[in-house]
Design a protein that fits this description.
Layout lengths: L2 E4 L5 E5 L3 E6 L7 E5 L2 E6 L5 E6 L4 E5 L5 E4 L6 E6 L6 E5 L6
Length: 103
């Protein structure tokens, strides 16, 4: 496991492993749902729990709209992304890697 993130309302738990990203609903006993396949290093929910952002070894940031499942892929890094973080109001997403770029 690389990272775990709780949604702000504690209803969702995201788990990034060495190979995949899973989403678990904590209010019911269900099998974790596979969201993304790939080696992920960082995951974060926005403050309202509507978006989930990830970064990893493929040098891309993915932002998932949790209600629809739509995924936006952002590129620009040239090395592994180790950190993603939303601003408090959720309007800005920062990402960090050894390539010293941000989104």
């Amino acid at each position: 496991m690389n990272q775990i993130a709780w949604s702000a309302d504690d209803k969702l738990l995201a788990v990034a492993t060495h190979s995949d990203l899973y989403l678990c609903q904590t209010s019911v006993e269900t099998k974790p749902r596979l969201l993304i396949e790939g080696h992920l290093k960082s995951i974060v929910f926005n403050s309202t729990g509507t978006l989930l952002a990830t970064g990893g070894r493929d040098h891309k940031v993915y932002i998932m709209e949790l209600e629809t499942g739509e995924i936006v892929e952002l590129s620009g890094h040239t090395k592994t992304i180790y950190s993603v973080c939303f601003s408090l109001d959720g309007r800005i997403l920062a990402s960090g890697s050894d390539s010293v770029r941000g989104i």
